[in-house]
Amino acid sequence: MTRRSRPLSFYxxxxxxxxxxxxxxxxMACLYILSFQGPDGGMxxxxxxxxLDWFRMLFSGSGQGLGDIPTAFERSxxxxxCVGALTLVISVTAGLAYRRRFPGANFxxxxxxxxxxxxxxxxxxxxxxxxxxLGWQSNWFTSGIxxxxxxxxxxxxxxxFIILGRFxxxxxxxxxxxxxxxxQRFQWVILPIILPGVIxxxxxxxxxxxxxxxxxxxxxxxxxxxxxxxxxxxxxASTPVLFAIGTMTTLVSFSLIIISLLVMSHxxxxxxxxxxx
Amino acid sequence: xxxxxxxxxxxxxxxxxxxxxxxLQVTPMALVYITLVLVPLGxxxxxxxxxxxxxxxxxxxxxxxxxxTLTSDLTLSLYLKTFKFLIIxxxxxxxxxxxxxxxxxxxxxxxxxxxxxxxxxxxxxxxxGPIRMVSWVPLLGRxxxxxxxxxxxxxxxxxxxxxxxxxxxxxxxxxxxxxMPMIATSLNSMAKIKPSVIQxxxxxxxxxxxxxxDVIFPLVRPGLAIGTVIIVTAVMGDVFMVKYMGGSQVNxxxxxxxxxxxxxxxxxxxxxxxxxxxxxxxxxxxLLRFADIRKELRQ
Lengths: 277, 299
Description:
The structure holds two protein chains of two kinds. Chain A is built from ten helices and no strands. Chain A is mostly helical. Chain A is globular and about 75 Å long. In chain A, 44% of the residues are buried. The model of chain A has no long low-confidence stretch (mean pLDDT 83). Chain B has a two-stranded antiparallel sheet. The longest helix of chain B is centred in the N-terminal third of the chain and has 35 residues, at 73-107. Chain B is built from 14 helices and two strands. In chain B, α8 (167-191) crosses α10 (208-236). Chain B starts with 17 loop residues before the first helix and ends with a helix. The relative contact order of chain B is 0.12. The radius of gyration of chain B is 25 Å and the shape is globular. Chain B is mainly alpha-helical. Classes of the chains: A mainly alpha, B mainly alpha. Chains A and B meet through α1, α3, α4, α5 and α6 of A and α1, α3, α4, α5 and α6 of B.
C-alpha cells in the first residue's frame, strides 16, 4: 500500500474500535481491582482499603453461604481434562477420515453442525431425559462428559478441517515414495506437522469444558462444576468474594493458554532449527 | 470434499480398503452425535406427545400439550420478547462487528498491531460466562460507576435503576459477548478478498465508501451470515444471561423451558424445546443459504 494521509474514516473507525475494547475490558478491569477490596468494602467502588481477605475466604470459606468452591473447582478441572483429551483424540481421528471420500461423510458433518447450533438447553435436556428414561443416574463421568463432548467435538472437527486444509500433501507423498507404511506416515510425517493445531484442539476442548454451563448443568448429577457453583452464588452472595472467584478462574485459564502457546511456539522453534523435539 | 490427497494408487493396501478406514476413523465421533444428540432429539419429540402428571410421564398419546403450546398467548409473547432481543442485539453487533473488522483488515497497515488488537478483542472471552455477568455490577449497579458519575455530574437526583437487572442490562451483556464472533467471521471473509480486487476498484476511481458497499460487503456476506448464526443460537438458546442480567424479571423462551424442567413437567418442556428447535433451525438453514461453511474453512 502506498503511504497516504489517513482518511477521516480511519479516525472514526479507530475511535470506535478503541471504545469497543474499553467496553469489553471495563467491567473485567473493575472486577479484578475490586477483588482486592478491603474487608469492609462492597461490590462497588470506592475501594475501602486493600486486602486478600476475599481470596482467603474462597479457600477456607465453606459455611458462609459460599458452597464449596475448592471442590467444585477440582471437579471442573477433572472434567475438563477428560473432555480435552477425548476431544483431541476423537476430533483428530475423525478429521483424518475426511481426507478421503467415504459413505456417511455428510451425515457426520451435518450432525456436527447440528450439535453445535442446537440450543444448549435442548441438548442438555435431551441427554438428561434419555438418562431419566433409561433409569440411569446422571453422573459427571458419563452424562457430564457426554454432554460437554456434544459441544467440544464439532469445534474440534472444524479446527481439524482448517489444519488439514493447510497441510501440504507432498510431504506425505514423499514419505509414501520412500516406502513408509500408513502408521509411519502418520507418526513421522503427519502428526509432527499438525501437532501445534492438535494441541490447540485439546486446549479448546479443555477451556470450553471448563466454562460450559448450559449443557452441563442438567447432567453432572450431584455436585456442581465451578461455573454452576458461581451461578448459584450470583443471587446468594453479595460480597466481593464473587470477584475473587473471577480473578482466580481467569488466572487459571490464562496460565493454561499461555502454557499451551509456549509449547506450540517451542515446537515451531525446534522445527525451524531442525532439532529433534 | 476437502483436500483429497493425491496419493499414488500403488499404496500397499493390506486388508482394509481406504473407505473402510475412513468410516472406522469417524465412528467414535459419529457415535457421540448419534447417542447424545440424535437419539435424545427423537426422544424429546416422542415425549412431547405423551401424557403426564407430577414427575411422571405415561406412555399414552396426549395432544393437549402441543395444542396448549401452539395456541397460547404466552408462547407468542415469549417468542416476541426473544426476537426483540435478537433483533436489537443483531442490529448493534452486525454493523459494529463489520466496522471493526474492516478497520482491522484495511486501515491497520502493520501486521503486529493487527495481531495485538485482535488478541485484545479476543482475550476477555476466555473468562467464564457467569463471571463476565457479575462483572457488570460495579459499573451498572445501583452504586456502580455509571450511577456515581451521573449523580456526581448532577444529571440525576437518585440512582438510575434500569441500568442493571433489566432488559437494558441483558442487551449490554449480549452485545459485549456476541460482537466478537461477528468480528472474527467478518475478518475471516475479508482475509480471503484478494488485494488486487480492491486495487482494481481503486484504480477505477471508486471512493472508499463505494468499495465497502459494492466490493467488500458482498464478499463478506458469508462471514456475516455465519456470525449471525452464532448470534441467533446464542440468544435463542440462552437462559443464564437473561436470568441474571434481567434480574429474574425478563422471561424468554429458554427461561420458560427451564421453569417447566424445574417443575418436572417434561412433556411441556419437550414441546417447547421442539418448537424452539424448529424455529432456530429454520433461521439457521435460511442463513446458511448465504454461506457454505466448508468453503469458509478453507484458507
